[in-house]
Amino acid sequence: MKLWEGRFDKPAAKSLEEFNDSLPFDRELWREDINGSKAHVTMLGKTGILPVADCEKILGGLRGIEEDIRSGKLEICGAEDIHSFVENELVKRIGEAGKKLHTARSRNDQVATDFRLYVMRAFDELTAGLKELVLSLCERAEDGLDCIMPGYTHLRKAQPICAGHFFNAYAEMFLRDMERAVQSRGRTAVMPLGSGALAGTSYPIDRDMTASLLGFSRPCENSLDGVSDRDFAAEYLFVCSLAAAHLSRLCEDIILYSSEEFGYLDISDEYSTGSSIMPQKKNPDIPELIRGKTGRIYGHLIAILTTLKAIPLAYNKDLQEDKEGLFDAKKQIGACLGVMAELLLNIKLERETAAAAAEKDFCCATDIADYLAKKGMPFRTAHAVTGRIVRDRIADGRTLQDMTAEEYAAYDPLFGPDICGKVKGWACAEARSSYGGASPARVKENLLSIKKRLEKYG
Ligand code: ARG
User: Which among 33, 118, 317, 324 is the best mutation to test ligand 1's pocket, defined by most ligand atoms within 8 Å of the CB?
Assistant: First the structure.
C-alpha cells in the first residue's frame, strides 16, 4: 500500500515503482527508522498530542516488528521505502492506532533523521576501525625502534631513519582521521525531526525531548535546512576518502618495500597470493586491492557533491541518491581498515636488508656536510665539498663507508679521525634528534604521544 494513494485515480505504473522505490537499499536503515518512530511516538504521548493508550500500542507494535526483523522472521519487502514498510506493517499488526504514528511528521524529516542516526553510527564504527589500525601501527613502530632503514624523497634514497618513524607517520595520519570523524559526528548529531515536510508543524511537539531520546545534541534550528541538508553525508564520505588516501599511501609503501628491489618488509605467506603461471611469485594482493578501492570511495564523494549542487530548497527526490554510495563506502572502508590492521601484524621488518640499504647509495652524505658545517665551514661550501666526494666515489665505485679518515682529510683539513663513525646508518639516524625527528629516542617519544592521544578514543 502506498502512503499517498488517496489522491490518485490509477495505481502506479510498474516502471514507476521499480525506478522510484528505495526499499531495496534503504532497508539498511530499518533500525534507525524504528528507533526514530519510537522516540516520535513517545513524545506524541508525553505531550498529549496522541492518547497514551494509542502510543503504547504503537510502541508495542514497533518492538514486535524490530524483534521479527532481527530474528529474520519478518522479511523487508513489498513497500516503496523503509518508512512505508514499517508503517504498513504496524497497521497490519495493531490496526487503526498504527495510522496515527505519522502525526506531526513527514517522510522528509523522517528520512533525514534516520540517515543522520545511521551516519552517527557509521562515524563511531569508522573511529573504532581507525583505532584498531593505529594500534597495529604502534606495534610495528615499537618493533622498528631498533631498526634503521633509508628514508626517501622523490623515491630516491635521502637519509637514514629509525624504522619506527615510518610507522608513526602513518599513525599520525590515521589519528587525524579519527579526530575528523569525531568532529564531523558532532555536526551530524543535530536532529531534523520536527521539521515536517519543510515548514515545521502546527502540533505542540517537543523537539528537545525527541532529540535527547535519540542521542542528538539538539534539534536543528531551521526546518527548510533540516529536511534538505546532507552535508553530514558529504563529510562522512570526505573523511572516508582521506582515510582511504592514507591507506593507499601506506599500501604503496608496503608494496614497494616488500618487493625484491627493496626487501625491507616481508608479508607473511597467509597474507600473500601466488601466480597461476609463475611459480616463484608472491604477490601483495591485499595492499593492491585496498589501493584500488580508494577510487571507488572517492567516486562516492564526488557523486554526493554533484547530487547536492543544484537542489532547490527544500526536499527533492534527488536526495534519495544520498544513500547507496555511503552504504558502500562504509562497507569498503570498514573492510580495508580491518584487513590492513591484520596485515600489519603479519609483516616482518627485514632488519639487515633495511640497515644495509640505509648506508648504501650515499644516504649519509648530508651528515658529511653537517660535520664540516659544525666545524665552522659555511653549509653551502660544505655541501659542495661533500658533492665532490660523492662524485669521486661514483667514479671509482667505492662507498662513503670504505673511505679512511686520511682520505676524507685530503678533501679538507677540517675532517678529523671521527668522520668514519659519522657515516654509519645508525649514527646518522641517531643524530636527527630534533623534536619530531627520526632518531630512535625521538621516535619513541612520538610513539608514546601517539598511544596517549589514542587513549582519548574509548
Ligand atoms: N525514499 C525517500 C528518500 O530517500 C524518502 C523520502 C520521501 N519523501 C518524499 N517526499 N517523497 O529520500
Answer: 317
